[in-house]
Structure formats: C-alpha cells, structure tokens
Amino acid sequence: MSLTVLRRLPLLALVAVIACSSGPSPDGEGDYVANVTAERQKKDAFMREDPQSPIPVIRRDLLLPLKYYPADPSYSVPASLKLANERPAFEMPTSTGTVRKMERVGVLEFTLQGQPMSLGAFVEEGTQEVLELFVPFADMTTGTETYPAGRYLDLRPTGTGFYTIDFNKAYNPYCAYNSTYECPFPPPSNRLKLAVRAGEKVPGA
Distance (Å, rounded) from C-alpha 181 to C-alpha 170? Predict the structure, then answer.
C-alpha cells in the first residue's frame, strides 16, 4: 500500500495487484502470510511514527497496533474487469456530508466462498489516465466487526484485464481514525452479501 497516497485522501492507495491468481500454492502459503504480516507491521510503524499519520498522538496507544483478521490466502481471488462502454459520473456520499464526483471504470467479477460476486471500480471524475482503481466495499461484517463506513481496496490497472482481489489487504479509510478526513461511502452495488473476514477490523476492536 502506498502510504504517500494515503496521507490526505484515502481514495487511491497503491496495492500490488498484478496478475490473475487464485492465491499462493500450499507450499507458498507461509511466505504469503509472512509478507502480509510484514506489510501490516510497516503500516503500524507509519501510523505511530510518521508526521503524516492520521491518528492523533493521544490516540495512538489506544488504536495501535491496528486490528486485523488473520491472513487467509483463500480471500485472495482472481477477478476480471468488465469495462464500461461509458464512464458515467455520479456523486458518491462521504463521511463529512459532502459528495465526491466519481466515474465507474468497470465491474470486477470474481468468485468468493463459492459465490459469484462483483464490485465496481472507480476513478475520480475527469481522470484521463487511469493509474489506480478505487474499490470501496461493504459486507456482512460492516458495522459490527469492521468499520461502519466500509473498507477500501485499490488496484493497479493491468494490461490483460485480469486481477487479483486480495481482501487481506482491505483497509479502513482515514476517517476511521480521525473524523476530519473525508471518506467516500461504498455505493449499494458494492455491498457484498457475505461476511468478508479478512483485512482490517474496526479500530480498537
């Protein structure tokens, strides 16, 4: 995840998503879990030590280390992006009561826990060169085990249209730690009807 991009508007963070894959092989699961754990430790260090951390100093002992579900390779799944013929603009509500003008680039189609699923992928209105895809989502854990405003994934576009969606890298928007940040809410089409017990939990849980 690109911590630089996350600093002010947690809209377009960087996640390493390159090729279509069903997750690591059994022999590689140990390395996969170790890599996810290392990324989480790096983020904790940023949140505690970096001047750009969104967490107020007085709340860092309360909220850190961040809370996560155990890394689970079964939540890293292949997906294909069905591009939209047009990119209609619409207003995405945010945590501050304002709206963010967005365009839907297409729909990611994948299978999770044996069920066919889809999530819209977005960019800010007027984006000419798509460098990152913003994928906000909610699921059956939202508002209980995970943050009430939903969680985010961000994908780097591929030349093939195939992706890996890794829910172990699902992260909370900055407004989860600090209400001064503006965080877009997932649209109804991006609310999954299952519990995604992967990625970041509600802060302090």
Answer: 18
Domain locations along the chain? 3-190
Q: Reply yes or no on whether the pLDDT at 145 is more than 60.
A: yes
Sorted by sequence, the CB contacts under 8 Å of residue 144 that are 6+ apart come out as 202
Tokens for 168, please give them: 């172990």
pTM of the model as a whole: 0.85
Q: Residue 5 — pLDDT band, cuts 50, 70, 90? A: very low
Radius of gyration of the chain (CA): 16
Give the model confidence (pLDDT) of 154-205 as tens digits: 999 999 999 999 999 999 999 999 999 999 999 999 999 999 999 999 998 6
Tally Cβ neighbours within 10 Å of residue 147: 24
Among 169, 110, 175, which Cα is nearest to 121's?
Answer: 110
Cβ(181)–Cβ(175) below 8 Å: yes
Task: Provide the Cα torsion 175, 178, 179, 183; round to 10°.
Answer: -20
For 100-112, the pLDDT digits (tens) are 999 999 999 999 9
